[in-house]
Amino acid sequence: MEATQSPAVSASTLKNVNVSATSISRKLTTSILTWPSSTNPKVLHLYVPKNPVQRNNTFLSLTRCSTKPNTNTNNETDQDSTPESNSNQEPQYPSTPISSNDSLPSNSLPSQSLSRGLVFDLGPSNSWDDKEIGSPVVKRFLSDEEERWYMWYHGNSTQNAGSADSIGLAVSSNGIHWERGVGPVSSSGGVGLVMKCSQDWWAFDTTSIRPGEVVVMSSSKVRASSAVYWLYYSGFSSEKVDYTDDDSLEFRLENPERFCLDNVNSGDFDEGKIFKSLPGLAMSQDGRHWARIEGEHHSGALFDVGSEREWDSMFIAGPRVVFHGNSDLRMYYHSFDVESGQFGIGIARSRDGINWMKLGRIIGGGKTSSFDEFGAINACVVRNKKDGKYLMAYEGVAADGKRSIGLAVSPDGLKDWRRFQDEAVLEASVKDGWDNNGVGSPCLVQMDGEVDEWRLYYRGFGNGGRAGIGMAISQGNDVSSFRRWTGFHL
Questions:
Q1: Chain-centroid distance, C-alpha 487
Q2: Which of 67, 126, 196, 427 has the highest CB neighbour count under 10 A?
Q3: pTM value?
């Protein structure tokens, strides 16, 4: 299937040039290939798993690729092959890829009925993601020869003294059975841990990072295999946000949210604490080795929280970016409105993917006693290939804190968002299911070709806050409800 690409931009095609990080155009209208570091904090950083402390002495080489936003950002994309990288790091853990089935811990759910929908469990003991996983960002890549799936997600390990989240990558040939790594990636084709928290004291992402969206930027003049991956992510710092609960909430308000009880019981995480988070951007040529791109905020983030009494004054989290057209990108993010006592989803707009202008809140709390009465978070927005409308899957928060997944639609992705229906399209499973305590962090993938359906990847959590990543499927093109994956039906 041919990928729909925007017209070529001749001025943005990369050449073999070296450009100082301090002189990079924020508009990305000039060619950039290599970004050498400097002693100035305003630099780009490449994460190197072998020795992240020495990132300031590294270089990132991006060959024959365009960094101006001209792309097809639907979840299905044609690509020839993954670009090669010259990185050659030694892993900190054994890095032999393992399948998601082989990686299930000894205490994983044994019954097929209890694990219905589960496609990705916690990593094996002593791996980088054996404690908690979530925030799935799933992309499908098609070519004439093969079908490839990438999933970026966050995880943390029981080996860590704290609960710092890192970002990892798993790959699949069908979006069901995944290969993962127990440690950092060691090659351009590897899987596992791909990005850690920043080591710079002044940065916004020193304590945890979670993926929000991966946008594939390319030009019709450049081979798809030379595209650049743009990772938008939430970065959490150690700065705590002051908030006095007046007992109006029946659930614990915290940022980032922790569902694994071990995080609290072990003292690794401060229960009920709200840490400031901001949106960040990193770029990669292979989806594995990432260079942070600094935004306008002094911490390197793309933009700051709102001023006092604005709805997003506490934190910015869950950035999801959609490419609408040439020089038109939209970011959807969530925060907690102190005034209304509800979560909300807002939108920002950009011409270059780096400089953003907030446009306000678009989704707030739902009806009384509804599954999303206390608001919506973790939005995933996809442009429907059938009718061109925008479909948003979001995590709804009920009055008691229970999490379910709902949908909203908009004709243009900017305004006039309306809830698809009053009921959730996916709720927590019943009784002893692996996700019986809640579902959220949705990621929509629209399938086409012989199969006309939607896939909904999500984070679920069950007894003790044990987390996993599941998948549900729509009934054809009808998105009013999703059923959990139970196996291939011939």
A1: 26
A2: 67
A3: 0.81
Rounded CA-CA distance 212/378 in Å is 8
Which residues, including other chains, have CB under 8 Å from residue 215's CB and lie 6 or more apart? 69, 71, 73, 229, 230, 232, 321, 323, 329, 353
Q: What is the mean pLDDT of each run of 10 residues along the chain (490 residues)?
A: 34 27 31 29 37 34 40 47 32 49 41 81 94 96 86 92 87 95 90 96 96 82 65 96 77 82 50 87 95 96 95 97 90 96 96 96 95 97 92 96 96 92 94 91 90 93 90 92 78
Q: Is there a contact between 361 and 346 (Cβ–Cβ < 8 Å)? A: yes
Q: State the DSSP code for 297.
A: S
Q: What secondary structure does DSSP assign to 2-48, as a single string?
A: PPP-PPP-GGGB--S-B--GGG--TT--S---B----SSSS--EE--
Cβ–Cβ under 8 Å, residues 175 and 150? no
Closest listed residue to residue 299, CA positions, set 205, 363, 417 = 205
The DSSP bridge pattern shows strands 356-363 and 376-383 to be: unpaired
Phi, psi of 465 (to 5 degrees): 80, 15
Q: Is the peptide bond before 256 cis (omega within 30 degrees of 0)?
A: yes
**Helix ranges, 108-244 (H):** none
Write out the two tokens for 356. Answer: 């953003």
Token duo for residue 180: 């993962």
Number of separate helices (H) and strands (E) present in the chain: 1, 25
Helix, strand, or coil (residue 242): coil
Nearest Cα neighbor of 319 from 265, 359, 281 is 281
